[in-house]
Specification:
The complex is a heterodimer. By secondary structure, chain A is an all-alpha fold. In chain A, about 75% of the residues lie in helices and about 0% in strands. Chain A has 2 domains: about 60 residues, no CATH class; about 240 residues, MetI-like (MetI-like fold), CATH 1.10.3720. In chain A, helix 3 packs across helix 7, helix 3 crosses helix 12 and helix 7 runs antiparallel to helix 10. Chain A is globular. Chain A starts with a helix and ends with a helix. The relative contact order of chain A is 0.11. Chain B is an alpha+beta fold. Chain B folds into 2 domains: about 230 residues, Rossmann fold, CATH 3.40.50; about 100 residues, Nucleic acid-binding proteins (OB fold (Dihydrolipoamide Acetyltransferase, E2P), Beta Barrel), CATH 2.40.50. Chain B has a 6-stranded mixed sheet, with helices on both faces. A 5-stranded antiparallel sheet of chain B has the order 13-12-11-14-20. The longest helix of chain B has 18 residues. Chain B starts with a strand and ends in a 9-residue tail after the last strand. Classes of the chains: A mainly alpha, B alpha+beta. At the A-B interface, helix 8 and helix 9 of A face strand 6 and helix 2 of B. Chain A: It comes from Pseudoroseicyclus aestuarii. Chain A: Belongs to the binding-protein-dependent transport system permease family.
């Protein structure tokens, strides 16, 4: 067994060794020319190239698109319009009423997203917290349940959306149960409230495993001695949670809160597959608006979509800075 | 303040039994030390008394009241943990007040008790600091303070000094001793350090493998160890133990030395124990244990001499002053028969 493993290891390593020998001489030459600083550039270059091609250049292109008009796809064919697209998005008689805005779908999507974020993040933090607390106890089959709760995180959002559409559709699993219990079937995904609740619930279900894991790690990092000291001090369970568990879980909670917030603002795939934004525009979220404006609608408007995505990115930058500030504050404690 | 009585205590974790029938009475105001090697069950026994674990069988009585089934919080005991277990997000003041707030004590009373504990432990100036801003010794004081403010019926201390450096350990040992004298409280102190045990204890319970081997005052343990384990564990350096043959008043050692020892049984294999401090250089013509010096540790006031007999048996002796010995030198050692300890084949002390 060991001999086989050794031979296998050698076989796997052989091509890499060959590669290393091949690049050894040119790298030595380069180092002699440029010194150690030049070597750092060599090793950073591949990553920087990938980052540039897939992040920096698209970011710049997106910004350029947001300054152009028309329906053409290729940038050189598009006329420069300055900040017109932003002006169009922000043109509103009354910001509290989407219908008074020139781009009312954008404002509907923004409002929906804001409401979604409030409910989904609250639900996410609460559910992940409760799950982590339960999974942190000595319960039977703890390892199994930890895997079960994490499993949805591994699923493609499209699969998640399809599974839940199959459950919630008119002739789906949920209605089968409802009818068998003697109630009338409901058109879950055609009801504004139910559909919105489904989007909140499904996206929470799909991602909670990730946040549960972060919180569970935090809970396990709290020394058992502290709980025993609290027990000797005659602390009641609720007070132990409020005065010991919660404060010591603070850094993890801050991370969970802000990551969940950022992800929630970006809600798209599972909700789009589940409801398609409907009924009407009741589950139309910002990312879907951007996607449809830029690619899916008959009169596609890449410039407007780009401007909307830049505005959304601005919000995300603010949230990310908040995350950094929060975690730094938590670290200082 | 309370006396503590343990009766028939056993504790098993799954199939592993770690405490095997412990009976012990701790008097009111006594400072009892549980001492023994790692894994002997001393901390487990303390946790059973604290109520953090439940005994498998047996009862625990505090002040004559059976508390075996009571949760830790209802026993009125306070514990000082090896790790200190201070709440890291609270200030010293909050750490000290927390337990009192739990029982909804009057704010003025809490403030008074915290101030008093601060004065007693000289930590008044640290009240608004967090535990991470304190040194090891200061944290230790806060941990003790947290126990004091609750005015418990007994203090349980689980290796409280093991995370401190040697010098601080000595200082804190003296402080705990002084604290015990001032408070007059019942204390149970767990340690694996026999120096701590000897210096602090009113009585010591020496434990091995979940059993109490002997309970006695420090000097009683030193002078009259009940068995080979206690003899080897208490005292530094360790007691010299030689296999010997007793024949009515004379002891034959493997090297051929015949030493007169009154009170030895006739015709029995025994173990003779002599503390290094009780071995002295033999006079001319005296029958003696012969050995060669292998190592000399000159400490100034005394010299620890490691030697080996012709049979390969190690011998340690502590000689006063700075004797002019060199490595490899032949050594003839003898002892006062009154200071020798005899143990039978089962390792139990033979009374002489």
């Amino acid at each position: 067994m060991t001999a086989f493993a050794t031979r296998l290891g050698a076989a796997v390593a052989a091509p890499f060794a060959l590669l290393a020998r091949a690049i050894d001489l040119p790298l030595r030459g380069w180092q002699r020319l440029t010194g150690m600083g030049g070597m750092a550039a060599v090793f950073l270059a591949p990553n920087l190239a990938i980052f540039g091609v897939f992040v920096l250049i698209p970011l710049a292109l997106n910004f350029a698109y947001s300054m152009t008009g028309g329906t053409d796809i290729l940038l050189p064919d598009r006329p420069f319009v300055g900040a017109d697209q932003y002006a169009r998005l922000l043109d509103c008689a009354d910001y509290s009423r989407a219908v008074t805005c020139r781009e009312d779908a954008f404002w509907t999507a923004a409002r929906n997203t804001a409401v979604f974020v409030v409910f989904q993040v609250s639900l996410m933090v609460a559910v992940s917290m409760i799950t982590a607390l339960i999974l942190n106890r000595k319960i039977a089959g703890r390892g199994f349940f930890r895997a079960v709760f994490f499993f949805p995180v591994l699923l493609s959002p499209v699969v998640v959306g399809l599974i839940w559409r199959w459950i919630l559709q008119r002739q789906g699993l949920l209605n089968l149960i409802v009818v068998n219990l003697g109630f009338d079937p409901q058109v879950w995904l055609n009801d504004r409230l139910y559909a919105f609740a489904a989007a909140v619930g499904v996206s929470t279900w799909a991602h909670m495993g990730f946040y549960t894991l972060i919180l569970l790690a935090g809970l396990q990092a709290i020394p058992r001695d502290l709980y025993e000291a609290a027990e000797m001090d005659g602390t009641k369970p609720g007070r132990v949670f409020r005065r010991i568990t919660l404060p010591l879980l603070g850094p993890n909670l801050a991370v969970v809160l802000v990551l969940a917030l950022i992800r929630s603002v970006q809600i798209f795939d599972e909700a789009y597959v589940l409801t398609g934004g409907g009924p009407g525009t009741s589950t139309l979220f910002l990312t879907q608006y951007i996607y449809e404006t830029g690619f899916a609608s008959l009169l596609r408007n890449p410039g407007l979509a780009a401007a909307a995505s830049i505005l959304m990115a601005g919000v995300l930058v603010v949230l990310t800075l908040a995350q950094l500030a929060l975690s730094r504050r938590a670290e200082r404690r | 303040m309370a006396g503590i009585i343990l009766s028939g205590i056993t504790k098993s974790f799954g199939p592993a039994q770690v405490i095997h029938g412990v009976d012990l009475q701790i008097a009111e105001g006594e400072l009892m030390v549980f001492v023994g090697p790692s894994g002997c069950g001393k901390s487990t026994l303390l946790r059973l008394i604290a109520g953090l674990d439940r005994p498998s069988t047996g009862t625990i009585a505090l002040d004559g009241r059976d508390v075996t089934a009571l949760p830790a919080s209802d026993r009125g005991l306070a514990m000082v943990f090896q790790s200190y277990a201070l709440y890291p997000h609270m200030t010293v003041r909050q750490n000290l007040s927390f337990g009192l707030q739990n029982i909804r004590m009057d704010k003025a009373e809490i403030a008074a008790r915290v101030a008093e504990a601060g004065r007693l432990l000289e930590i008044e100036g640290l009240m608004d600091r967090r535990p991470t801003q304190l040194s090891g010794g200061q944290r230790q004081r806060v941990a003790i303070g947290r126990a004091i403010v609750r005015e418990p019926s007994a203090f349980l201390l689980d290796e409280p000094l093991s995370n401190l450096d040697a010098e601080l350990r000595g200082t804190m040992r003296a402080e705990i001793s002084g604290l015990h004298a001032r408070l007059g409280a019942t204390m149970i102190y767990v340690t694996h350090d026999q120096t701590e045990a000897m210096t602090l204890a009113d009585r010591i319970a020496v434990m091995r493998a979940g059993r109490i081997e002997q309970v006695a005052t420090p000097l009683e343990l030193y002078n009259h160890p009940a068995n080979l384990f206690v003899a080897g564990f208490i005292g530094a350096p360790n007691m010299n133990l030689f296999a010997a043959r007793a024949s009515g008043g004379v002891l034959s050692l493997p090297g051929g030395a015949e030493l007169p020892l009154p009170g030895t049984p006739a015709g029995a294999d025994v173990t003779i124990g002599i503390r290094p401090q009780h071995l002295r250089l033999a006079q001319e013509g005296e029958d003696a244990i012969e050995a060669r010096v292998t190592l000399i540790e000159a400490l100034g006031a005394e010299t620890v001499v490691h030697a080996q007999t012709a049979e390969g048996q190690p011998v340690i002796t502590v000689l006063p002053g700075q004797p002019p010995l060199t490595r490899g030198e032949a050594l003839r050692l003898n002892f006062d028969p009154d200071e020798a300890h005899l143990f039978d084949e089962n390792g139990q002390r033979i009374a002489r």
